[in-house]
Each structure stands twice: as C-alpha cells, then as structure tokens.
Amino acid sequence: MERETVKICSKCHTLKPLVKHRSICVECNLVRKREVAAAQQATPEGREANRARAAAFRATPEGNAYQREYEQDPNNKAKRAVAQRKPTNEKVRQDRFRQSPEYNAMMSDARAARKPGYWKGWGQTAEQKAARRVWFRKWQLSPQGRLSSLIAGAKKRAADNGLLFDLEVATFPELTACAVTGLPFCFDEPDETKFNPWAPSIDRKDPFRGYVKDNVQFVCVAYNLAKNQFSEAVLLRLARAIVDRNPQPVIQEPSCAISPS
Predict the structure, then answer these.
(1) Residue 81: pLDDT band by 50, 70, 90 thresholds?
(2) Half-sphere exposure of 144 toward its Cβ, with a 13 Å CA cutoff?
(3) Where are the alpha helices (DSSP H) in 19-161?
(4) Is there a smaller number of Cβ atoms within 10 Å at the N or the C end of the chain?
(5) Which residues contact 183 (CB under 8 A, 6 or more apart)?
(6) What is the count of structural domains for the chain?
(7) Is residue 148 part of a domain?
C-alpha cells in the first residue's frame, strides 16, 4: 500500500496529505475540480454536453424515478416557483421607486398636466433626475439596497478578474450583523472618512477563489479592509496582540451608536 505524503498544501498552507503528483491537499483539489467543471459548464459547449447527459440520465429507469421523486417534493416545487418569479436588480429598483412618495408626486403632476406623451420623456428634466438621485441614494443606504449594490459590485469584479460568480440577491437574508464580529451593521453616511467602518461589505473567505455562495460572508468594512488578502488567522493574531498591548483602549462610539452584541 502506497504511503500518503503529508506536506504543506500550497493553496491552503496547512499540513495535510497531498494528492499524488500535486502540491495541494485533497480538499483543495476537490474545490479545484469543481471550479474547473463550473467553468466548463459556463461555455455553450459545456451547457450542451450537460443537457445531453441529463437527457440520457432521464431516459433510464433510475432517471425517471429520480425525476418523479423530485417533482413530487413540495420543497422543490416552492424553489421552482421562486426561481420563475425571481426579479432582476433593475426590476427591484423600479418597483421600489414606484412605491416612493417622489414617484407619486410625479404621477400627480402628470395627471394634472395631462400632456400627451408626457411619460415618454420621463426622467429628462432636472427636477426628475434630482428626485431620482435622492431616492436612489436613500435606497442604497437601506439594507436591501446595500445588499443589491454589494452583489452587483462583486459581479463586476468577478467579470473583470475572470472569477466564478453565482450570487443572487434572493438567496441571502437581510443584512443585520457582521458574520465575524457580531456587530450590527450601520447604514449611515460616512462622516469624515471615505468609508463607514461599520457598514456591510462582502468578503471572500478564500481570496484565491471566486464569488461563490460558500466562499462569501458579509462583514463590516473595518474588518474587510484590515483583512485584505490575508486569512482570518492573521487578523485574529493581530487583534489579540492589540488587545494584549492595550488592555483598556479608548473606544469612540460610531455615529449610529453601535454597541457590541
């Protein structure tokens, strides 16, 4: 029996048994295989091959039994119903704007004016553009708006850097607290700095992987900027060193009065 080689994995930097003829461990190799398979399925040829394999499986008795069991499961029916009516980010913004007082005021002005073709040029006047900018900024500072903006930014960065991306707004709960520190999020505008340190941000647990659901977490901006490209172990060691050297630090409360939970 061949003896397993235990060395430092070149990807996760931990002491584990390595895959034969490779410098990475079994877990990292499995993640790599999944990413390669996802990249192949993202191409038209990969999608066509995947559909052909699925059709061939459904033609077998086992495939028919699995399909009937899947269709009869009420949880899967609910998931399909949600996926069919899942709105896009732009549709969500439009629907929320139509429910705002600014939109109602514009509609009242339009009905009072009763000009033919008034709404064909909607959003062209300075007043309409200013009202939409004000409303959109308020929406961006809300939990749902912040979540949509973070996922949209992650999608753009993934496309620019050639990373995997499979995040959807509907799959995440409302932003309430940092996943690492437990501090509640603050959605106020920053006072003097560029960023609000307690605002939510999206963090990749493994900075060398893409924006996939099992690799992201929502943390406060201060934690995300401090972590940067390092691991949680590095930041935890740094935080412990700061606390040990400053047993009674002077803590300034943020503008939104966050207190540790």
Answers:
(1) low
(2) 9
(3) 26-41, 44-58, 61-72, 74-84, 89-98, 101-113, 126-140, 143-161
(4) N
(5) 177, 198, 220, 258, 260, 261
(6) 3
(7) no
Reported as a pLDDT band with limits 50, 70 and 90, residue 259 is: very low
Indicate the pLDDT class of residue 251, thresholds 50, 70 and 90.
low
Q: Confidence class of residue 73 from pLDDT cuts 50, 70 and 90?
A: confident
The residue whose two tokens read 């400053």 is 246
Q: What is the CATH number of the domain that holds 168?
A: 3.30.40.220
Q: Determine the Cα–Cα distance for residues 205 and 10; give it in Å rounded to an integer.
A: 17
Q: Is residue 152 part of a domain?
A: no
Torsion region of 210: left, alpha or beta (phi above 0 gives left; psi -120 to 50 gives alpha) = beta
Structure tokens given for 145: 């708006």
3-state secondary structure of 155: helix
Name the DSSP letter for residue 202: E
In the DSSP assignment, the letter for residue 2 is: P
183 is written with which tokens? 């501090």
Give the pLDDT band (50/70/90) at residue 37.
confident
Clarify whether residues 168 and 241 are in a common domain: yes
Classify residue 151: in a domain, yes or no.
no
Enclosing domain of residue 203 = 160-245
Closest CA to 93 of 144, 52, 134: 144
Looking only at the bridges linking them, the beta strands covering 6-8 and 15-17 are antiparallel
Cα torsion angle, 117, 123, 126, 132, sign: positive
Residue 83, in any domain of the structure = no
130 with 175, same domain? no
Q: How many CB atoms lie within 10 A of CB 75?
A: 8
Q: What tens digit of pLDDT does each residue of 176-224 get?
A: 888 888 888 888 877 766 778 888 999 888 888 889 988 899 998 888 8
